[in-house]
User: Fold this.
Amino acid sequence: MMTGHPDRQRGLTLWGWLYVLATLGVILMVGIKAVPIYMNNYDIRSTLQWASSQPELRDAPAFEIQERIQRRFDSGYVDNISGRDIKVERVDNGRRLSVEYEVREPLFANLTLLFEFHETAVIPRNP
Assistant:
């Protein structure tokens, strides 16, 4: 025996489809906006790791380290921060390079995506 009425079980209505499509559209839009920001962060992180592996930067002044990092940012099209935003400080095991920044990306209407990043790397002391 069949339970219920088969003429009432027709699947999603027009409003159901609109809700599903709107939800997928918002998720897709967030993804499209977020991917370039995370790729830019990857470039920043890899530049800090590069700087931490350079032996000539171990004893370099802070402004020279920032200048070399800025050149890498320029060639990698990093536009969220500059080399001067990198904080260079002495620590027990060498020098710490750190940066904290946020990126605000408008989504639509009055909604904005906020991304916060904290990256660090250490230039080890001479052996």
In short: Residues 80 and 103 are 7 Å apart (CA to CA).
